[in-house]
Write a structure and sequence with these properties.
Blueprint: H1 5-31, E1 58-63, E2 66-74, E3 77-79, E4 83-85, E5 90-97, E6 102-106, E7 112-115, E8 121-126, E9 131-136, E10 149-154
Parallel strand pairs: 2-5, 4-10
Antiparallel strand pairs: 1-2, 2-3, 5-8, 6-7, 6-9, 9-10
Length: 155
């Protein structure tokens, strides 16, 4: 098959770009350890209520203006609901699911996680503005999904 000069050039540029892209992804994923978190911390989803720290969900102060919020997501609710934190508080969220895959998104922030049964998810956020922040499930989890939400009041 005959290829023209410009076809060869474009094929080499396209192939070279593809190779460079795959090398960058490979180096990022393996050599630099950049990969999505998984299997870091697991638990039995049937025994969430007996497993520390989920046996006592809620907000606990762990430092000056630093808090740890342990939450459980389950069919159409978050436990605990309606949390209050002071302005400027750094909150470490620790979340798991008892039953199915749920989402965990705090509207107006960059906090967004997928909560899977048997996995413990952690994320940290500092609330610099006062107001009410909606926590909602952004993964379809069943017929009551649209009602699955709670709020964080920052005072």
């Amino acid at each position: 098959m005959h290829l023209y000069k410009y076809e060869k050039i474009w094929l080499m540029l396209g192939g070279g770009t593809l190779i460079v892209f795959l090398l960058i992804i490979g180096v990022s994923a393996f050599a630099m350890g950049m990969a999505p978190p998984s299997h870091h911390e697991t638990l039995d989803p049937q025994k969430v209520d007996q497993t520390v720290p989920f046996n006592e969900p809620g907000l606990k102060q762990i430092g000056k203006n630093e808090y740890e919020l342990v939450m459980i997501s389950q069919a159409f609710s978050f436990s605990p609901g309606n949390i209050q934190v002071p302005k400027g508080a750094t909150v470490h969220f620790i979340v798991t699911s008892k039953d199915v895959v749920h989402g965990f998104q705090i509207a107006g922030t960059n906090v967004n996680m997928m909560i899977t049964p048997g996995h413990v998810n952690r994320i940290t956020h500092t609330f610099d503005e006062t107001g009410s922040f909606l926590i909602l499930c952004n993964e379809y989890c069943g017929v009551g999904h649209q009602a699955m939400s709670t709020t964080i009041e920052v005072m």
